[in-house]
TrEMBL record:
DNA-binding region: 45-64
Biased composition annotated in UniProt, kind: Low complexity: 1-14
Single GO MF descriptor: transcription cis-regulatory region binding
The keyword DNA-binding is assigned to this record: yes
Naturally occurring in which organism (per UniProt): Streptomyces spectabilis
Name of the protein described by the UniProt record: AcrR family transcriptional regulator
Length: 207
């Protein structure tokens, strides 16, 4: 990626988007998700994304300097949609651990319905270098927000709770990778997620 592309990408993310620009960005993300859903990471070619979104190739690069930037942003968009859905239909578990496990499995099943898209987004996260750090950080913050919402805390999380959330997020991400690679069944993923969510119970005495 050139220095000009990096600068353009930074400008695109730093300045608030107009309504027209936001609509264009949403078309780009929709096109990216559609192409990834059909053929995974390799199917997302910048020229094809531009054509599907109805924008010039140069315009696409001003929004997203590379395919990895685009797919990480696509994951961010997917998580935001999941977060909205989960807030409308919160988990019904009796304990914070049960609610988090239910939430993560619902998110997992949503990704399971689009395995090519899930694989493309996870590969982009794996390939992301330092230039994609802001987008990766946003994905991490969104995942944390989803987990904390499911916990249903009365106040701010403690340091121990935040540590538990980080371990849970790492496990969920690892479980997604092992499932995508065919090394874990859905049943095994559910067992692992429920097990790691018990860490939340261990932090109860420190609240």
């Amino acid at each position: 990626m050139t220095a000009d592309a990096k600068t353009a990408g930074a400008r695109a993310t730093a300045s608030p988007l107009t309504e027209r620009q936001e609509a264009r960005r949403r078309r780009i993300l929709h096109a990216s998700a559609q192409l990834a859903s059909r053929g995974g990471f390799d199917a997302v070619q910048m020229r094809e994304v531009a054509e599907a979104a109805g924008v010039a190739l140069g315009t696409l690069y001003r929004y997203f300097p590379s395919k990895v930037h685009l797919l990480v942003a696509t994951m961010q968009d997917q998580l935001q949609q999941m977060h909205t859905t989960l807030r409308k239909r919160p988990p019904a578990g009796e304990t914070p651990a049960e609610r988090v496990a239910e939430t993560l499995m619902r998110a997992f099943r949503a990704l399971q319905r689009e395995p090519h898209l899930a694989d493309a987004m996870v590969r982009a996260l794996t390939f992301a270098d330092r230039s994609v750090s802001p987008e990766v950080d946003t994905v991490s913050r969104l995942t944390t927000a989803i987990v904390l919402d499911a916990m249903g805390l009365d106040g701010q999380p403690t340091a121990a709770q935040l540590s538990a959330v980080r371990v849970i997020e790492h496990t969920w991400h690892s479980a997604l990778i092992t499932w995508l690679s065919g090394r874990a069944s859905i049943a095994q993923v559910k067992i692992d997620i429920e097990m790691v969510c018990r860490l939340i119970d261990l932090t109860a005495s420190e609240t």
